[in-house]
Amino acid sequence: MNHEHESQKDRLYQALVHSVGDYVDSSIRHQTDNLYDAVINRLEGLQKSEEKYRTIFERSRDAILLTDIEGRLIDINRAAIKIFGYESKKEIQSLETATELFNNPTELKTFQDVLAQKGSILEFEPCLKRKDGSVFDASVTSSVITDVTGRSTGLVVMVRDITSRNQAQKKIEKRNARLATLNAIATTVNSSLELNEVLEITIDKILEILESDNIRIYLLDEKRKNLILTAWKGLSQDFIDKPYMKTRQVGDGLLGQTILSGETRVADNISRSGDPYVEDFNKEGLKSTIYIPLVSNEEQIGVMCASSRTRLKFSKGYVDLLTAIGNQIGMAVEKANLYEDVKSAYIELMAAKEQIIRTEKLASLGKLAATIAHEINNPLAAVLTYIRLMMKLVNQNHFGQERIKDISRYLHTMDRETSRCGEIVKNLLDFSRQSKISIGLHPIDEILERSLALLNHDLEINGIHLIKELAPDLPMVRCDFKQIQQVFLNLISNASEAMTKGGSLTIQTRIAQDKNFVEIVFKDTGYGISKKDLENIFEPFFTTKEEGQGVGLGLSVVYGIITQHNGLIQVESTPGAGSSFYVYLPVA
After folding, report:
1. Could you tell me if residue 103 is inside a domain?
2. Angle between helices 481-498 and 554-564 in degrees, nearest 10
3. What residue numbers bound the domain in which 24 lies?
4. Last residue of one domain, picked from the residues 142, 161, 180
5. What number of other Cβ atoms are within 10 A of residue 288's Cβ?
6. Which end of the chain has less Cβ packing within 10 Å, N or C?
7. 3-state per-residue secondary structure call for 380-413
8. Half-sphere exposure for 163 (CA within 13 Å, toward CB)
9. What is the pLDDT of residue 336?
10. What's the Cα-to-Cα distance from 294 to each of 189, 254, 256, rounded to whole Å?
11. How far is 588 from 584, CA to CA, in rounded Å?
């Protein structure tokens, strides 16, 4: 090879001598040699670059197309032949221009506009056509080829088939969307106790993400003989109004058979499913349906039907998702049933509590009866005495002018005493009258005075000195007047019973240290309560009284009423020295 190069150098030198004559010297000879070596090295480099380029060009897994400035195909690699579905390079080059490979004219125009503006385009994703007319998703990267003068001479275009990648991405997106749907349904189930709300949101989520057009959800009745349509969407009213669509016997049709077997049933083609209601499905335009059993605590409770107006092949992922949603519905039904049970139990408990309060009120009325009878007896005796005196005066015809003042005094006394009796009876009737709880703003002093009006005589005959220390200008409390009156009557009555040999009862009202409460204190000088009994004083049926003197509900009812009013009751006691009850009611 070197010998051949030397010969070529000699021939080049001789030609140069022939051209310029005697002026060629040894330095020219040396420059000629260098020039020749540079040219040879450049040519060899270009040859190696071309070989390298050709290797990359042919072995690339991506399609590579070279076009002239008009878009005619100059060269393509083997990957391009394969990706576009042609048999040979010659066959694909028979296309008029590379633009024929684009499926969408709008995408082609976008491709051309970007190239014209920027001279290159990176990972553009159009739909391209194969020889057989089928299309595929592609990623196209292209740039303009220019010569040494900067003039555009053609394009190099690289094409990658990303159909599989896009399909995988869509599967991931679909899976994520389904998981998001399942999560949203689970969140709804966990945050709501209203079954209808859960079912409505569940149906909306299913229709939003899945291919189904409509959903029906059936739940078993209490006797487990019929499936009752509980929720639905996406169907005509005529279809739903059919009796066997609203209610379906267990075992009737694919729907009824699903609840029996507890297995998912798929009808890809309803017309050939053998269901007795095929004609109705055809009129509604339903082509395929999947029946998902609903389970709660391993027990069949209903069926979910997802239908479509197009023929669907239900994939395993589709079935699995609907099954998972069905499990969530089962949980929702279970929670709703538990909620209803708890609500019923709560209503019964509140009714029992109200009954206890009424019973205790009757007990309080029983205690008051004798006292009030004595209290009324005195003014009635005075009235009766004056009536008899006046009748005697009438019989003796002693109604002279001199007796007018006496008669007026008698009548005034009778009026005062009868009014007193009327007020006592009115207070008693107000207290005893059964009524619904009525929360309002009330002055605490008025409730105390009304309570004491019923018990003043009882305190007097038992030798109990009443001391009232009521703070002025107390704020209103938000309460039920009669229930708080019942609390005060009970505490005053208990204090009276604790002072069998007389004593003193001090009632105080004031603003509590916590400014949000009014404090009412009942202090007696009775026999007190032992430390052991203090721990159970507010427990139902706990009593320190002798048998037959009480059932132990009084303080329990008091505690319940105060708690229901968001208040607080506390007790302090020293055996032999007396007890103090502290009631705290929130300021309005």
Report:
1. yes
2. 150
3. 2-56
4. 161
5. 24
6. N
7. HHHHHHHHHHHHHHHHCCCCCHHHHHHHHHHHHH
8. 10
9. 76
10. 15, 15, 13
11. 12
How far is Cα 547 from Cα 542, in angstroms, rounded to an integer?
A: 12
* Close Cβ partners of 213 (under 8 Å, ≥ 6 residues apart): 207, 234, 286, 307, 308, 309, 310
What pLDDT is stored for residue 542 in this prediction? Answer: 46
* Six-digit token string for 386: 């004056």
Compute the distance between CA of residue 408 and CA of residue 411 in angstroms, rounded to an integer.
5
Distance in angstroms between the alpha carbons of the first and the last residue of the chain: 113
**Chain segment 368-416, per-residue pLDDT in tens:** 565 566 556 667 766 777 677 677 766 666 666 666 766 777 677 777 7
Section 54-80 average pLDDT: 84
Q: Where does a domain end: 30, 56, 82?
A: 56
Long-range interactions of 535-540: CB distance < 8 A, separation 24+: 537/571, 538/569, 540/356
Backbone torsions φ then ψ of 222, nearest 5 degrees: -60, -35
Q: Which of 117-126, 181-190, 284-293 has the lowest mean pLDDT?
A: 181-190
Task: Name residue 135's amino acid.
Answer: V
* CATH assignment at residue 155: 3.30.450.20
Which residues is 247 bridged to in the sheet? Answer: 228
Same domain, 118 and 223: no
**Dihedral pair phi/psi, residue 569, rounded to 5°:** -130, 135
Q: Which residue, chain included where needed, has tokens 């976008």?
A: 110
Contacts of 84 by beta carbon, 8 Å cutoff, 6+ apart: 63, 92, 101, 128, 129, 130, 131
Q: What is the DSSP string of 241-289?
A: TSHHHHEEETTSHHHHHHHHH-S-EEESSGGGS--TTHHHHHHHT--EE
- Label the pairing between strands 477-480 and 439-442: antiparallel
How far, in Å, CA of 132 to CA of 373, rounded?
Answer: 111
Q: What is the pTM of this model?
A: 0.44
> Torsion angle of alpha carbons 457, 460, 465, 467, nearest 10°?
10
Round to whole Å and give the CA distance between 563 and 557. Answer: 10
Amino acid (one-letter) located at 481: F
- β-bridge mates for residue 267, sequence order: 289
**Phi, psi for residue 430 in degrees, rounded to 5:** -60, -45
Distance from C-alpha of 331 to C-alpha of 296, rounded to nearest angstrom: 6
Tens of pLDDT along 455-472?
887 788 888 999 999 999
